[in-house]
């Protein structure tokens, strides 16, 4: 029996693509669905390249049960947020307890919370003159970026690093560590 994953993403989907590639021939884990709130998200094209079905939901579907029924139709066991910019509704948190993980482009608890995503995070890190940044993989709960931390990886920053350079450094960590971490969570029941 395979574990069926859904990837939720709102944007370009580079992390989603790395996850799709990592699990493309996995014996026990399969990416079965990509879910997005953005009909123009780049992740849709990336999923197409791996022949993974996509679902673009309408905002009202977060509250009327249609999203849950869609996940059931694809036998989804686990959800990965990879650049997903919406709050996960309570109904999904209850349906998938400790089975929804997110990646955050900073070392939580610093630089987390509502509005702290993408370049907003990297600009804040640079403005604070942080000597390091990194990425955090964590479980999702009812509060932005406050779920239990599973794994963190850090990278040294230079005083001359721009927010764009920080983003590049952090993205390299995300691409390297996110998919193997997902595998460990699912196979070892972390």
CATH class of the largest domain: Alpha Beta
Question: Which residue ranges are poorly predicted, with pLDDT under 50 across at least 5 consecutive positions?
Answer: none
Order of helices and strands: EHEHEHEHEHEEH
Strand count, sense and barrel status of the largest sheet are: 7 strands, mixed
Write the layout of secondary structure elements.
Blueprint: E1 3-8, H1 14-22, E2 29-36, H2 43-49, E3 54-56, H3 66-73, E4 78-81, H4 90-95, E5 100-104, H5 118-127, E6 132-139, E7 149-156, H6 163-188
Parallel strand pairs: 1-2, 1-4, 2-3, 4-5
Antiparallel strand pairs: 5-6, 6-7
Helix pairs in contact: 1-6, 5-6
Descriptive overview:
- This protein has 190 residues and is of the alpha/beta class.
- The protein has two domains: 97 residues, Rossmann fold (3-Layer(aba) Sandwich); 69 residues, no CATH class.
- It is built from six helices and seven strands.
- Strands 3-2-1-4-5-6-7 form a seven-stranded mixed β-sheet, covered by helices on one side.
- α2 links the parallel β2 and β3.
- α1 packs parallel to α6 and α5 crosses α6.
- The longest helix is centred in the last third of the chain and has 26 residues.
- It is globular.
- It starts with a strand and ends with a helix.
List its salient traits.
190 residues; alpha/beta; Rossmann fold; 2 domains; seven-stranded mixed beta sheet; 35% helix
Compact description:
This protein has two domains: 1-97, 3-Layer(aba) Sandwich (Rossmann fold), CATH 3.40.50.170; 106-135 and 152-190, no CATH class.
């Amino acid at each position: 029996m395979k574990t069926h994953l859904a990837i939720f993403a709102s944007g370009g989907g580079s992390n989603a693509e790395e996850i799709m590639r990592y699990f493309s021939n996995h014996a026990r884990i399969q990416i079965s669905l990509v879910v997005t709130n953005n009909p123009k998200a780049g992740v849709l094209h990336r999923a197409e390249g791996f022949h993974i079905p996509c679902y673009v939901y309408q905002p009202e579907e977060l509250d009327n049960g249609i999203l849950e029924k869609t996940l059931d139709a694809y036998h989804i066991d686990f959800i990965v947020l990879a650049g997903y910019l919406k709050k996960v509704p309570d109904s999904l948190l209850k349906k998938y307890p400790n089975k929804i993980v997110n990646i955050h482009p900073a070392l939580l608890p610093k630089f987390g919370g509502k509005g702290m995503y993408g370049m907003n995070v990297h600009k804040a890190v640079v403005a604070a003159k942080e000597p390091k940044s990194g990425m955090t993989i964590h479980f999702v709960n009812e509060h932005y970026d406050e779920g239990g931390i599973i794994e963190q990886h850090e990278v040294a920053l230079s005083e001359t690093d721009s927010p764009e350079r920080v983003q590049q450094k952090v993205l390299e960590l995300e691409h390297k560590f996110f998919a193997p971490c997902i595998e460990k969570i699912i196979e070892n029941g972390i």
